[in-house]
Amino acid sequence: MTFLAVDIGNTRLKWALYDSPRPGAAVLAQGAEFLENIDRLADGEWARLPAPSCMLGCAVAADAIKRRVEEQMEELWDVPAHWIVPSAAEAGLVNGYDHPTRLGADRWVAMIGAWHRLLSTGAARPLVLAMVGTAVTVEAIDASGKFLGGQILPGHGIMLRALESGTAGLHVPTGEVREFPTNTSDALTSGGTYAIAGAIECMVNHVRKHCGQDPMCIMTGGAGWKMAPHMPRPFELVESLIFDGLLELAQRRFVA
In this predicted model, what pLDDT tens digit does every residue of 139-172 receive, in sequence order? Predict the structure, then answer.
């Protein structure tokens, strides 16, 4: 029973075909495509795949993007597309958002993946999850598995473009992150990096104060590898959290 997992972000679609819809399943094939190229999937990498038995996807993009993915699937396979909609509780997590269905599906799925990763290490404890991409989200979960709330802030690229458009004489830099920048490019790169690091550290402090315990700290997202070295505390860097979350959810939905 093969399983196709799809993660549609702000700029790219990532997919993976697994040998079964359950955590720890072996990856049979995987790939990524920029959103503007979704219509090539049926003639490209997906054309070489065996038909999956089931599919589950997570999308932050508009419904029109999801429909384009469904059209590519319909060209190749008789497999219905299923998309995650956050709920009040699922897979051991309680959704503390004021309106649970309005929480971003990518945030919910990544939290589920991170929570089960934490549980696999032993006893439950609080968790801070930072997802660093086009935007940055920082989520807080207590030791009982309740999502307490989270922050959303601009990613590094958005910050730099905002400065470039709103400030005379500044241009998107190719600088380095330094403790004491002595040129404008380094100053801009360092400022954006430490602004994100500061927001994440603030959430860690909030969780410690609220829960009375140091949280486990996990980082994911396409730009996580850039941020992790500049954090004031160790963060475990995990690339596949959304796929890990989709596997947890798939097991509950497709396996009797």
Answer: 999 999 999 999 999 998 888 888 877 776 677 6
Number of domains forming the structure of the chain: 2
Model confidence over 178-224: pLDDT tens digits?
999 999 889 988 999 999 999 999 999 999 999 999 999 999 998 89
Asked if residue 128 is part of any domain, the answer here is yes
Residues 6+ apart with CB under 8 A from 32: 12, 13, 14, 15
The response to whether 101 counts as a known ligand-binding position is no
Which of 36, 58, 83 marks a domain boundary? 83
Give the CATH number of the domain where residue 128 resides. 3.30.420.40
To the query of whether residue 106 is one of the catalytic residues in this protein, the response is: yes
Q: Is 10 annotated as a binding residue?
A: yes
Q: Is 65 among the domain residues?
A: yes
Question: Do residues 141 and 225 both lie within one domain?
Answer: yes
Using CA atoms, how far apart are residues 141 and 224, in angstroms rounded to an integer? 19
12 is in an annotated binding site: yes
Q: Which of 43, 106, 214, 244 is catalytic?
A: 106
Give the mean model confidence (pLDDT) for residues 2-27. 95
Q: What percent of the chain has pLDDT over 90?
A: 81
In this structure, the answer to whether residues 66 and 136 fall within a common structural domain is no
- The reply to whether 164 and 224 lie within a common domain is yes
pTM of the model: 0.93
Q: Determine if residue 106 is labeled as part of a ligand binding site.
A: yes
Asked whether 196 and 227 are in contact (CB, 8 A), the reply is yes
Radius of gyration of the chain measured on its C-alpha atoms: 19
- 31 among annotated binding-site residues: no
Do residues 65 and 96 both lie within one domain? no
Q: Name which of 55, 43, 59 is nearest 17 in CA terms.
A: 55
